[in-house]
Structure formats: structure tokens, C-alpha cells
Design brief:
heterodimer, A: 128 residues, alpha+beta, three-stranded antiparallel sheet, 45% helix, 21% strand, globular, B: 386 residues, four-stranded antiparallel sheet
Chain lengths: 128, 386
């Protein structure tokens, strides 16, 4: 059910977020945003043969931020690194059926978390 | 689904007796109260009676009450009216960092027009120190504006002490009393204020009507120029339905205030104690005792307030995060920041504001929903360590 400024898809992902939690032996981890600014999200990736085999998140933020993180994990699971890096915040928003303009930054944070977690993976891999 | 409304500082429901009072003006009594003929006269008596009801609520003379369109118009009229009326005397205004935007943004506007403004700080409980007001007064100070009660935290300010300081120094004193009306008794003459703002929809009247108290003998500039309405102080055809409703609401609320607020205060206590019992890592924002009886502001640490608001909304519970005027913004509340509360704790602040319709069952229902909603959101939060 749509609620306030949010679509039914946003509310569904907010009330029943997919892939919440941590991955203990994650290959790539990133934390973006800041609690002081209202939103922060932590993304954990498990990567095998260049493919994202698992993704989990933790978010402190508004319902749009939680829904954006949830949708993003769904979108990147099973994708190659190259495919995941191409996902834009616009695609996350489209998948959610849209976000109010004032909440667009939540989808940007989700996109940023994917890029940062993959960077972390590549950095660790380079060292190893 | 059960619906519980705990956002009475944003607005209140229209009291059934107020609704009944305006029915004759929706069908039948349509005259312009400024008209001399029968149609105008028929309405004028009710208009005058309503002004008297509003004046009685604050123990003022009816001639000291100017009817406006809302609390914000009253704030604008008071502050700009003094500023533009006294600008030859210089222009320094004293206010606080925690005012409603209706005052704060008028002061910022006047700063851009060349006036100087001092914004007084508050302590960790959102309280101001009257001595700070005294120290801030300069030779060119033309106005002091301090709210009676804060809309977000419910902290009640020492208006009488500030009024005495203002009198002693001969500086006009305005107070935004929008949230105080109907919640604490307002004896306007004993408080030493010269100007005070009120709003109808916070006391069970409809939106679109407010009032400005202007102490007898005080001359300020008009905000809205035009016809001779409101004794030449506020032009525009009178909002008959609005004032009749506001008047009726004042009469009802004044009679019920003591008993209603004892009840509301005990419900608020039930809510506070219930939350403290059931949820850890919570903190009360605002003064613990010098406060409005109906307002409870609490931070649920590690949870962002908007997500909690939406989760409660999904369960039929209406609360607010920050003040309604800045909802949708991701900026933390200016009121809580001014209290030196860390920004991430400000982001976790939810305001519960109770009203006359709330019951013990409402509070118990809310208490049954909150713990699960909070723990669900905490389980998702990267800040929360079990």
C-alpha cells in the first residue's frame, strides 16, 4: 500500500527489507553517508569469480534510504562486478516506482555504497 | 486498524461543539460584519462575542485582540510591526535560537533588511536564562521575542521574568504563545508581554484563523493594509466562520482546561514511563518538569526518526519527527541542535503530542507497537551493537 509520499514498492521494501544483516567473511565492505546527516548505510558483498554471489546491508536512515538499500541488494545479486558498477541511482529509483525529490539522495547513497564496496574488494584483491 | 493521533502540536481535531457553532454561518448567516444593514448586524453580534471569548481565554480586553489568519501572520505582524514602526530608533531585536520558523525566519528576513538580531542560546534541557535577556539588551534594542512554550520539546520559558526585565528597560516584548494556549493558563496582563501570537487550530478550531494580542496603548505598524477592519489594524474582510469557531473553542477549552490537562498529563506520564520500561537507549529531550503537559520528545538511539514515524504510521499511529514545518527535510531539528544534543541523537527524535481525545487504551496500544518497531529498525542499523 502506498503511504504518504512513498509508493507501494518503497513501503514494501521498508517494511520487509531484503538482505538485511552482515556477511562475516565479506569480500568487499563499505560504509557511506553519516549518521549526523541523517543517513548512513553499510554494504557487505560476497564475490566469487567476478560475480556478486551475496549482498547484505545495514542502514540508519529514513524509509526511503532503507528501501533504496534493500532494492539495490536485490539488483546487484548475481551480477558481475562490471554490471553492478553500471547500476545508477536512477535505476534504483525506477525499480522503487520513484522517490520524492527530497529523497533522491537516498538512492544516490545506495549507488555510492555499491561502488565503494566493489572498490574495497578490488583494493583487497590487489593486495592479496 | 486502530488509529491513534499523537500529533496535536501540529494540529488538533475540530471540537464537535465548535463544528456545531459554525453551522449557522455555512447556511443562513452570510452577511459582511462591516455592513450596517440587517445582514451585517446579524453577523456582527457573533463576531464581537467571539472576540470576547478569545480575550477571556487570555484575560485580555477584547480591544486588545486582533484577529489574523494564523499564528505565523500574528508573529509577522508583531515583529515587523514593531521593527518598521520603530526603525528610526535603530534596530536591534533579541530572540532565541529555538523559536518557531514563524519568528525565526522573520528575524532572519529583518537581518537582511539591516536590523541586528541576537539569538539567545538554550541549555541542554532547552531552557533559557532570563539573565541572558537582560545582558543582551542594548541602547538600540526595539523588541524582545521569546516563545512561551516550545513546540518541539514542550519546554516552558520564564515569560514573567523576561516580561519584568522588558518592562524595566522599556523594551516591547512579544511572545509566540501558539503552543501554550489551552495547555497552560495565560494571564496576559500579569506576564508583562506587549504582543502575543495565538492560533485557532491548535485549540480545536479549524485552520485559517489566529489572533494577535496588542497591549492597550501600544502602537505598531500594520502588516496588511487595506480596509478599516479590526479597528484599522488588520485589513481584509473578516473571517467570520474562523473567528466564531476560534471563539467557541476558547470558551470550551478554557472551561475544560484544568480537568483535560490533568488527564492528558497522566497519559503523557504513562507513555513516558511505558517507553522507559520497554525500550533501552532512549532519552527524553526537553525540560523534565517545566514543560507543557501534553508534549513528549524522545530520541530512540540508533533509529532514524522518519523511519520510526513511517513504521508507526503503518500501525495507525500518527507522531512527528522534528517539527511539521521542517518535515521532509533531512536537516536535524534546529531546536534539538541548539540544546547541544549530538546530531545523530537529534535524527532519532520523535515527538508525541497528546490531545483531548486520547485515552489510556490509545497509549497502551502505542506502547504495544513501539518496542517491536524500534527493535526491527535497530536490527537494520549499522550503529546498533547488540
Amino acid at each position: 500500500m502506498a503511504q504518504g509520499p512513498y509508493t507501494a514498492t518503497v513501503m514494501d521494501h521498508f517494511m520487509h527489507p531484503r538482505n538485511v544483516g552482515e556477511i562475516e567473511d565479506a569480500d568487499g565492505i563499505a560504509e557511506v553517508g553519516s549518521a549526523a546527516c541523517g543517513d548512513t548505510t553499510k554494504l557487505f558483498l560476497k564475490i566469487k569469480d567476478n560475480r556478486i554471489v551475496d549482498a547484505k546491508f545495514q542502514t540508519f536512515g529514513c524509509s526511503a534510504a532503507i528501501a533504496s538499500s534493500s532494492m539495490t541488494t536485490e539488483m546487484i545479486k548475481g551480477k558481475t562486478i562490471e554490471e553492478a558498477l553500471k547500476i545508477t541511482n536512477k535505476e534504483v529509483m525506477d525499480a522503487l516506482g520513484g522517490l520524492p525529490e527530497i529523497k533522491h539522495h537516498c538512492s544516490v547513497m545506495a549507488e555510492d555504497s555499491v561502488k565503494a564496496a566493489i572498490e574495497d574488494y578490488l583494493r583487497k584483491k590487489g593486495k592479496g | 486498524m486502530r488509529r491513534v493521533y499523537l500529533d496535536n502540536n501540529a494540529t488538533t481535531s475540530i471540537h464537535p461543539e465548535v463544528a456545531a457553532a459554525i453551522v449557522p454561518f455555512l447556511a443562513g448567516l452570510y452577511g459582511n460584519p462591516s455592513s450596517l444593514h440587517w445582514a451585517g448586524r446579524d453577523v456582527r453580534i457573533y463576531y464581537d462575542q467571539a472576540r470576547l471569548q478569545i480575550a477571556d481565554m487570555i484575560h485580555a480586553h477584547p480591544g486588545e485582540v486582533v484577529v489574523t489568519s494564523c499564528g505565523t501572520e500574528s508573529d509577522n505582524h508583531a515583529i515587523k510591526g514593531v521593527a518598521y514602526g520603530n526603525s528610526e530608533k535603530g534596530g536591534h531585536i533579541i530572540t532565541t535560537t529555538v523559536e518557531h520558523p514563524g519568528v525565526l525566519n522573520v528575524c532572519k528576513y529583518l537581518e537582511n533588511k539591516g536590523f541586528a538580531v541576537t539569538y539567545l542560546p538554550v541549555d541542554g534541557q532547552g531552557q533559557i536564562e532570563p539573565d541572558d535577556v537582560k545582558k543582551a539588551i542594548r541602547k538600540d534594542t526595539i523588541l524582545i521575542s521569546v516563545m512561551y512554550a516550545n513546540n518541539e520539546t514542550g519546554t516552558v520559558f520564564p515569560i514573567k521574568e523576561i516580561g519584568a526585565i522588558a518592562r524595566e528597560r522599556g523594551v516591547p516584548f512579544h511572545s509566540d504563545m501558539v503552543q501554550a494556549m489551552g495547555k497552560i493558563d495565560i494571564d496576559i496582563h500579569s506576564l508583562g508581554v506587549d504582543l502575543a501570537s495565538f492560533s485557532g487550530h491548535k485549540v480545536y478550531a479549524p485552520k485559517g484563523v489566529g489572533a494577535l494580542y496588542i497591549r492597550e496603548g501600544l502602537a505598531i505598524d500594520n502588516l496588511i493594509h487595506g480596509g478599516h477592519q479590526e479597528d484599522g489594524r488588520r485589513a481584509g474582510t473578516e473571517n467570520v466562520i474562523g473567528i466564531v469557531a476560534f471563539g467557541a473553542a476558547c470558551e470550551i477549552v478554557r472551561k475544560e482546561m484544568q480537568s483535560e490537562y490533568n488527564k492528558i498529563e497522566s497519559l503523557r506520564k504513562r507513555l513516558l514511563e511505558g517507553i522507559l520500561e520497554r525500550v533501552d537507549h532512549v532519552r527524553l529531550n526537553g525540560h523534565p518538569t517545566t514543560r507543557l503537559p501534553n508534549t513528549l520528545n524522545m530520541s530512540f538511539e540508533y533509529v532514524e526518526a522518519e523511519s520510526l514515524l513511517m513504521a508507526l504510521d503503518m500501525n495507525g499511529i500518527a507522531v512527528s519527527s522534528g517539527s511539521a514545518c521542517s518535515a521532509g527535510s533531512t536537516e536535524p531539528s534546529h531546536v534539538l541542535l541548539a540544546m547541544s544534543i549530538p546530531p545523530e541523537i537529534c535524527q532519532s527524535a520523535v515527538r508525541f503530542s497528546l490531545g483531548r481525545e486520547n485515552t489510556e487504551e490509545d497509549i497502551d496500544y502505542v506502547l504495544s507497537v513501539i518496542p517491536e518497531a524500534v527493535s526491527r529498525l535497530r536490527a537494520m542499523s549499522p550503529l546498533y551493537k547488540r
